[in-house]
Design a protein that fits this description.
single chain; 309 residues; alpha+beta; Immunoglobulin-like; five-stranded mixed sheet; four-stranded antiparallel sheet; 11 strands; 20% helix; elongated
Length: 309
């Protein structure tokens, strides 16, 4: 009986030790993992932690085209508001106005372009208003040909272009853009004011006229720009070979010949346009000879510029 009781007590102690081992002692897998030289691969009991996200960096700002600087209030003419200003305000300007006090000297208004490269402005149909009257800017010939057959078209200004408007009458009744050869027209017509006399020389270098007689070369070199040979000089030439060769060369000096030689030059066209608005020989008064205020409006009636003198 005593032995039975001892066995029971031993079993109870053994069971208690077992319960303690499984509840308080380190797990079996951990004990095994500490044994040197042993590697145990156990199936994970939970999902792996998500991978860290890729780092983010601030994006490069998209470049923007800067707008035109805002026009300060002090530049807005009296009597107008910002909403009255044209998109061409400060870009197309009246840069001078001349009121003549002489009967045969015309009034003159100059409009200049301060556009940026790549910009353009069609000013045909724009209005200039003075204290006396209004002027509507007409069309003009862009490339004037020797016989004036090109049609008039809208005046389109680009950077550095300018327009001179005169109160006198054009003898051809046509407005046009100046070019390297147009000064020859002055030999046949009386423009007011006169056309520029800066045509190219009738020869590029002396080799082109070196075969001519000395008298002929001297006369050709004495001709001013855009000047036609005079009939009186033709009459002084002999009827021999040298005289005939000289006459042949003189016959090539003309508006048409200049146009054919230079029409494809990069600088053939001038930056200047000319407009004549007069209807009679005597210029009309469009400006007050003492003081005046000029307002330039675009086709939408918006203010482009103000000029006061």
């Amino acid at each position: 009986m005593a032995n039975f009781i001892k066995i029971i007590i031993f079993l109870i102690i053994l069971i208690g030790i077992g319960i303690y081992f499984f509840t308080q002692a380190p797990k079996f897998s951990e004990i095994i993992g500490r044994i040197p030289g042993q590697k145990i691969f156990l199936k994970p009991t939970s999902k792996p932690a998500p991978a860290a996200p890729w780092p983010t960096y601030p994006s490069t700002p998209t470049p923007t085209i800067s707008a035109e600087p805002e026009i300060p209030d002090y530049l807005i003419p009296a009597g107008f508001e910002r909403k009255d200003l044209s998109p061409y305000f400060q870009k197309i300007q009246i840069t001078s106005a001349y009121a003549s006090s002489w009967n045969y000297t015309p009034d003159q208004i100059r409009i200049s372009s301060y556009l940026n490269k790549g910009e353009s402005a069609n000013i045909t149909g724009w209005k200039i208003k003075s204290n006396r009257r209004e002027i509507i800017i007409p069309r003009a010939i862009n490339i004037y040909e020797p016989f004036g057959s090109a049609p008039e078209e809208d005046i389109i200004l680009i950077v550095n272009n300018y327009v001179n408007i005169y109160s006198s009458k054009n003898p051809l009744n046509k407005n046009f853009r100046l070019n390297k050869c147009i000064g020859y027209l002055e030999s046949a017509y009386d423009f007011n004011p006169a056309l520029p006399q800066d045509c190219p020389a009738p020869y590029k270098d002396r080799s082109e006229i070196a075969h001519l007689s000395g008298e002929c070369q001297t006369y050709i070199m004495s001709l001013g720009g855009c000047k036609l040979p005079e009939t009186s000089f033709y009459n002084t030439l002999s009827g021999g070979e040298q005289g005939n060769v000289c006459r042949q060369f003189l016959n090539t000096i003309s508006h048409g010949s200049c146009y054919q030689k230079h029409r494809f030059d990069s600088d053939f066209l001038s930056n200047e346009w000319r407009i004549w608005i007069g209807r009679s020989v005597i210029p009309e008064d469009i400006l007050d000879p003492q003081h005046d205020r000029l307002l330039l409006f675009d086709k939408q009636g918006l203010l482009v510029d103000e000029y006061v003198y």
